[in-house]
Amino acid sequence: MQNQLNKLTVAVALASAVLASSQVAASGFQVREQSAKALGNAMAGAAAGAEDVSYMTFNPAAIGNVDGTQVAGGISYIDANFELTDAAAGPAGLPLSYDRGGSREGGEEAWVPSFAFKTQLDDQFDFGLSVSAPYGLSTEYDKGWIGRYHAIETDLQTIDIQPTLNYRATDRLNLAVGLRAQYADATLSNAIDLGGMSGSPALVGNADGKAEVTGDDWGYGYTLGALFQATERTRLGISYRSEVDLTLEGDVNYSARNAAGQQILAGAQAMGQLRDAGGTADLTTPANMNLGVYHQLTDRIALMANAEWTEWSSFDELVVESGGQDLSTTTENWDDTWAFSVGANYQLNREWILRAGLGVDESPVPDSEHRTPRVPDADRQWATLGATWMPTRNLGVSAGYMRVFGDDGDINQSGAKAENATRGDLSGTYEVDANVFALSVDYRF
C-alpha cells in the first residue's frame, strides 16, 4: 500500500505540473486530442480501444483493461487556419465602412498537454487520475479587421482533473465512475464604434474603442463508463460525461485606440456609461456520450469504430453581465451533434504498430445567422495516420497526425437584430482547415 501511495504522490505532482503549464486552444469548442494513439485512429478507439491509461479521458472504464500501474503523458500541437472571404460589413443604413485593411484570418496555434495515471488497488478495484483539456477555444483577429465589432479575441481554456474508480465486476466487465473538477478561464474582446456614439458620421468606424471581458470559475461534474469483453477478440465500450455549469466572474475593461475615441469614451464614462467594472458570463460545457467497438480481426489487424454524441444544445446563448445588467448577448442556439469514425491497427512486428483512421464531425452551428467570428465552425472530416513504437514491453512511444478538412461556412450576422445594434452587419464565407500532431509516452510499472 505504501508503494501505491508513493506512486500516487508522484502522479499528483506530475498532474500539478501539467496544470500549471497548460494552455488550451483549438479551432472549435471541443478538444479531443488527449491521446496520440486515439488520434492516430481518428478517435475510432475512444470508447472501446482501452490500449493504455490515456483512454480514461474518453472512457473511465478503460483503466480496467490495464493491469498493474501505468502512467502516460502527451502533447498535441494544433495549427488551425480559418479565413473570412468575400467579407462585407457595416452599420445599418450607412456605407460598408468598417474595413481598415486588417487580416481576415483568425486561426491560432496551440499546445494541448494531457496526463493520466492508474494503479490497481486489488483484484477488483483500480484507481486512476487524469488531467486533460476537453474543451477550448482560441480565435484572434487583427484589431482593425472588418468584423472587429463582433469579435477580436476569444480565448477559452479548460482543465479537467478526473479521479476515477473502476470496479472489475467480472473477468469481462469493467464499470467505472469519475469525478470531474473543471477549471475554466476566458477572455472575450471586441471593438466598440465610439465614433457612432458621437453623432458625427465622419467618425463612424474611425474612433474605435475596445471592450474586454475576463473571468474564471470552477465547476463540477461526473463521468461514467463500461467496458465489456464480449468475446476473446471483440470489446465494446460506452461512456458518458456530464455537462458542467460555470459562472465566469471577472472584469470588464474599456479602452480607446486614438485621441478622438478617448475623448468620446471619457464623455461616456462621465455619464456613467462604459465604465470598468466587474462582470460575469454563464457557460455550460456540454455533456457527451461515446459508443465504440474494438475487434481483433487477425493476430496483426485490429478494427475499431466509434460514435460520439455531444449535447451542444446546452449552449443556447452567451450573455455577459455587469452591474446587474446585460452588457452583451450573442444568440447561439446550437444543435446536438454526432461524430463518427473508423480506424485500423496493423501489428508490423513486436515493436511497431501502424495506425490509420477516418472521421466525420457535424457542426453544432445551425445556420449562417448563428455562425459567429468567435466560433466559425462548420462540418468537418478527418484523415489520420499514426504509429506506436514499443522498445520494451513496458514502454510505448506513440505519434499521430490528423488532417482536418472543414466545409466552407457562410456567416450572415444582421445589424437589424437587437443584439447586433452596436455591431452592425457582417457577412462572408469562412474557409477552415487544421493540422494536428500528437506525441505521447506510456510506461507500465
UniProtKB/TrEMBL annotation:
- Recall the GO molecular function terms of this protein's record: long-chain fatty acid transporting porin activity
Q: Does the keyword Lipid biosynthesis belong to this entry?
A: no
Per the record, the domain of life is Bacteria
Q: Which GO terms describe its cellular component?
A: cell outer membrane
Annotated signal peptide = 1-26
- Entry membrane topology: Multi-pass membrane protein
Q: Its family?
A: Belongs to the OmpP1/FadL family.
Query: What name is this protein filed under?
Result: Transporter
